[in-house]
Amino acid sequence: MPQILNPRVVFSSIPEGPPDAETFTYLEDENIDIETVDLDGGILVEILALSLDPYMRNRMRPIEEPGDMPAFGMNDTVTGFGVGRILRSEGDGIEAGGHIYGFMPFKKFVVFPTTTAMSLEMSGLGLKVLSNPYGLPWHYFVGALGMSGQTAYYGLKDLASPISGQTLFVSAASGAVGHLVIQIAKLQKLKVIASCGSDEKVALALRLGADHAFNYRSSNISEELRRHGPIDIYFDNVGGPTLEAAIENANMHARFVICGMVSQYNSKLSDSYGVRNLWLLSRYRIRRVSYSWYTAKLYIFCTCRMEGMVMTDWAPKYEKEFFDTIPRYLASGAIKYVFHEYKGLESTSLAFANMLKGENTGKTVIILDEDVARPAQGQKEQ
Amino acid sequence: MPQILNPRVVFSSIPEGPPDAETFTYLEDENIDIETVDLDGGILVEILALSLDPYMRNRMRPIEEPGDMPAFGMNDTVTGFGVGRILRSEGDGIEAGGHIYGFMPFKKFVVFPTTTAMSLEMSGLGLKVLSNPYGLPWHYFVGALGMSGQTAYYGLKDLASPISGQTLFVSAASGAVGHLVIQIAKLQKLKVIASCGSDEKVALALRLGADHAFNYRSSNISEELRRHGPIDIYFDNVGGPTLEAAIENANMHARFVICGMVSQYNSKLSDSYGVRNLWLLSRYRIRRVSYSWYTAKLYIFCTCRMEGMVMTDWAPKYEKEFFDTIPRYLASGAIKYVFHEYKGLESTSLAFANMLKGENTGKTVIILDEDVARPAQGQKEQ
């Protein structure tokens, strides 16, 4: 078979503020012969879908600047989570025709050499051969069944300590993680308050089961939470003033799951919003005020916990349960997956910029192969 | 016996910023006959020592203003934690001559009616008859053995999850709680970094066992923590820029115990310092950067937990262990108690103002009876 194009996306410009059309560049500068390319004991994968996630904004910095994740190298192929079909395999116990999930370069075809050793080395982020008993679209594995779904599920499992009847507040509630948080929280019989960035997204949050939803751009966040709170659990996807309002309206012994702070990702530290009321984490609260055998009134102390959450920390404990549960709910429609698809690697810059602007609803995903894009059980919003 | 004076302290002025000499007023407007006063089934107590604590700043607001603790009533007798001697008792199983700890009015003598019922009603804050097997000065029970000591002990017990060899950072390290945190942390074989507000306090922190101590007024906090960190545990007594620097220098899976934020207590919310880097709670960190089978580098995710801490939440679990352990350490000198004593109820305003200005070292305590002021095993700093 002849050489065919192996298109890819490189990182091409460090954005000053929000990413734009220059951030990534689509290139058709590589070829591959998929029948003869040397596998070196590994596998050849055709990538079907790639995930765009807000955390990637952190990687768009000068490579010499210290940071929390490795910077994208200038003119290097971008990397992120993807799902692919195994075209050929020399790997141990890995069959051609199977599907695989993991950290991948943004290209059409990729060879992963020495697969088994690699899986070990990459621990939680390693490539994983997928099983799909309900025949869900493969791109679900970078969304509802990938980092987004697992973040929602693990976050609500342990850190949040959900108690039936308590009140959960979720921000970015129509986003990749948020819209799943709403639905899982309702399955846990929590009361759900949702904040979103548009009236359309508010309507979606209500359709997905939120008991109350509001548009943070046109509402007083603290007032909404005062009226419908106090909050026992806050699932934070945005940070900034919303976090401050949530702290202000936290119930005693509230649990805050800090999942992301997308409102802050384009800011330099000096421009970032400062949360001014953290001392309330160890605040004192009145429980009863009627006691008066002398002038003192009766009160109790309370505390609030705020914990950073990243799914890989919890996958070892809950991954099996997740895959035993959520695919079934997605297949039955008990949980609806909302995604915003972009077609082809060439849409990477636009898709990422729109995601950070809040113009996408649900999970942002790049579909490389039309076959996986059928919204069989999913709900497509575009 | 004739009537004798029963001096008291009332709340007399709501401070705009820091409390001052007008905040409290000492009055000699009440008399009591301690032999004949009606006990109504309760007990008559002579108060020996009273505790001044930064949390009391929250109570100095207009009474109609909602807040986290009941406001001090204007011209009402101030209340706080105290220790007293039982002069007479009609209470069930409570003997005259014993000593008692709990929430008390700032006066010389007080009658607590219907003692047993009251104890029940006040739950965690109730009066408690004391046992003192090591003959420690009674005022220790409002300090090293009271809220301060228990806060240090419980905070380091559970929330902090201390692991031998890890690094703890404590702010206000020569304060009521901080100086005990240093010593308990050293018993747990932690490396201790301490920040204080003067060079004298730095010297004290080092004498108490801190591995490194610095004066935050003349140092770059973040630079100090970068050099001696990263931090696995942060015991926060101050909030503000120190908290921000600690977040910046947190190790993976760090635990932040939010005990108090004294730097913020005089501020209105709008003037409060905003912590700008909370998104780092769910930051990503590089563990190894050598992996390069394609352009990706290997990293792992990490999280940081921040939890409000108030001792009453933990007393049910650890109080017995605390009283089995700490009095013995105090008696043997394994833990040194540092306190700053003021004599007489008339010193309340001055003592409180000095405490919030950082002019006291260790625990601030008002001594009403000279007999309990002997620094038998304690170290007195004034």
Automatic annotation (TrEMBL), chains A, B:
Keyword Transferase: no
InterPro entries (UniProt xref): ADH-like_C, ADH_N_2, ER, GroES-like_sf, MDR_fam, NAD(P)-bd_dom_sf
Keywords, alphabetical: Oxidoreductase
Domain Enoyl reductase (ER) as annotated: residue spans: 17-366
Entry GO MF terms: oxidoreductase activity, acting on the CH-CH group of donors, NAD or NADP as acceptor
Keyword Oxidoreductase assigned: yes
Descriptive protein name: NAD(P)-binding protein
